[in-house]
Amino acid sequence: MATKNSPDNILAYSAVIIAMIIWSSAGIATKIALRSFSPLTLVTLRFTIAVLLMLVIGLASGTLQKIERKHIPMFLLAGFFQPFLYYVCETYGMRLMNSPTVAEVFLCTSPILAPVFAFVLIREHVTLRNIIGILISTGGVILMLTIGNNNFSIGSPWGVVLCFAAVISAVLYTIILRKFPDKYTNLSIVFYVQLSGLIFFYPMWAVLDLPQLIGTPLQWSDIAIPFGSIVYLAAFSSVLAFILFSYTIRRIGVTRANAFNNIRPVFTALLMFLFFNEQLPMSKWLAMLLVIIGLFICQHEKTPHNSKLH
């Protein structure tokens, strides 16, 4: 195992921070794309383009490997959990919630559930320090999302169920990533996982969205910018960020990698502050500081066997 300050760990932390910045900016591109495309069409196009990009890159660089037949079920299961189940549950769950903020609060519980699932399913080393750091960081996220927000009603209970289903599917996806053999490159893993996800997306898209698209005339001038946003999401959010996150999980584990999901709202707030002049009151700055402090506590480990949970 790499030590805390080893070059591999430094690369892993750099990778996950870049991934979180990319995913934090994805919301803006998604909003633009939704002007012309339904959520299901958007996600299906996004991952189709992503798979094609990885195919070209992988073949050109020689980094795309063939997978062994015995590992196909593992790739299919990972693709079912994410991208397919996660994005379907997240999209429809947020639609059923009265407030997007409430949905985001439920979705930010993945760092809390990750160590539980990781310890139970793969016996991943989890320390008391990890748990305390995650709880502090998650508390900071909840404060960030709720400060100054009066629209805090849940809406349909099914929205809650779907949001939790999205969280669980995302956590299970990261656990499966942890179990992939080391011989596979990160690009190969992400390529085959997302290709597997498309196997589930296409039938659903063909039934729900394709008939409407066939009967709707499209003007390139109307969809050029939204389609460009989908290409951005494919290239950066679905290819680069997923590969970087895959690398991080395989280096530092499910618990510590998932904890970084809490920093996504922080980056989103900073991007809105820097580029869209959105004001941040002092209370939100303090909540952001709490998120970062919690992350530092979660990542710190004295020895490999310190405070191991049984």
General description of the model:
The chain is mostly helical and 310 residues long. The protein contains 13 helices and no strands. It has helices at 7-33, 39-61, 72-96, 100-107, 110-122, 128-146, 157-179, 186-208, 210-214, 220-252, 254-258, 264-275, 282-299. It is globular, with a radius of gyration of 19 Å.
Mean pLDDT over all positions:
88
Dominant shape? globular
Helix percent reads over 70%
Number of strands: 0
Question: Can you summarize the main beta sheet?
Answer: none
Low-confidence segments, given as residue ranges, are 303-310
* Tally of helical segments: 13
The computed structural class is mainly alpha
Proportion of residues in extended strands: under 5%
Secondary-structure element order, N to C: HHHHHHHHHHHHH
User: How far is the N terminus from the C terminus?
Assistant: 20 Å
Characteristic terms for this protein:
disordered C terminus; mainly alpha; 310 residues
Please outline what is shown here:
By secondary structure, this protein is mainly α.
Write the layout of secondary structure elements.
Layout: H1 7-33, H2 39-61, H3 72-96, H4 100-107, H5 110-122, H6 128-146, H7 157-179, H8 186-208, H9 210-214, H10 220-252, H11 254-258, H12 264-275, H13 282-299
